[in-house]
Amino acid sequence: MAAAAKIDPMHQFAIAPIAGEELVASPFMFTNSALWMLIVTAAIVVFMWGGTRRQLVPGRWQAAVEVVTGFVGNITRQNIGPEGRAFLPWVFTAFMFILFSNWIGALPLAIVGPHPFTVTSQFTVTGVLSLTSFAIVLAVGFWKHGLHFFSLFVPHGTPFILKILIAPIEFISFLVRPFSLGLRPFVAMFAGHILLEVFGNFVVQGLNAGIDGSPLGWAIAVLCFMFVIGVNALELLVGAIQAFVFALLTALYIKDAVHLH
Amino acid sequence: MELASAQVIGAGLAAIGVGAAAAGVGYVFGSFLQGALRNPSAAGGQTATMYIGFAAAELLGLMAFAVAMIILYAR
Question: Scanning every residue of chain A, which has its alpha carbon at the shortest distance from the alpha carbon of B59?
Fold first, then answer.
């Protein structure tokens, strides 16, 4: 009987240099994460370039691009207002990057060769994205309102005694924002891929047991395979929702900085 | 008790929070659907608010997952 291999769901998140040498802390290491970031960027550039030929009657490709730009444009317009147009480039960039890395990372490319690496399954990547959003909020807030920006922590019309209580709470919740904003897309991808890996292993182990003469193994393999397909579909949905939530919350936080409640 | 077994038990306990977040997310969408079915014309404008509620509820489950992972892989 084939020895059941120990399931190692963390291996897929390991960052390793492409050339195969040892990973050291150096900015000149070309890792799998960097490679897939480049692939994601190239995919976004191709998608946008192909759809911005400015035809009067849009073709299919241009219509797809218009749907996406219109969608993100709506997020900023509805939440920030007319000033939101100035922040559309960053919100759109973050949305597209998270969406494309989530979806490219979920592609079953490993059937034909390369293992796709989900860039957003690293907290460093999503953390930097959320810190950029936070930096934009701080810069816009202090630039537009100066030190008056601190009135963000004191809601209008609160009695004085409550103000003393509410201001620290609001302050802490403000400081937690970049953390929670970056944690959300990271953990969603991380957990989904662990689930896929574990159940993918069940399929292989079930097949092995089936080949060894256990009919139950075949049943388990088929069931787990159907489950993996379902989870993959769910993963596509979650990837889109996480990109949407990131864009939405970024727009909301920028609204706080622009309008101060 | 050995550290490894205590870690596994702790991670399992921390994973309970994920189930609580599942109830929260279900409540958000369920309440939205209740309201949307009573007044469908007002539902379209409130989807963004629903997703904010969804994000807030979901975050706590994700944090429970993160805590479980930290406990499980801490050395």
Answer: A184
Would you call B29 an interface residue with chain A, using a CB distance cutoff of 8 Å?
no
Query: Class for domain B3-73, per CATH?
Result: mainly alpha
- List CB contacts of A86: < 8 A, sequence separation 6 or more: none
ipTM of the complex: 0.79
Structure confidence by residue, pLDDT tens digits, A67-92: 999 999 999 998 888 888 899 999 99
Q: Taking the domains of chain B in order of start, what are their residue ranges?
A: 3-73
Nearest CA in chain A to B66: A187
pTM of the model: 0.87
Please give the interface size between A and B, counted as residue pairs whose CB atoms are below 8 Å apart. Answer: 35
B73 close to A (CB below 8 A): yes
CA A202 to chain centre: 27
Query: Using CA of residue A147, residue A91, residue A179, residue A45, what is the dihedral sign?
Result: negative
Q: Which of A8, A77, A79, A180 is the best mutation test for B, with the most CBs of B within 10 A? A: A180
Classify residue A183 by burial, with Cβ atoms within 10 Å: 0-12, 13-18, 19+. buried
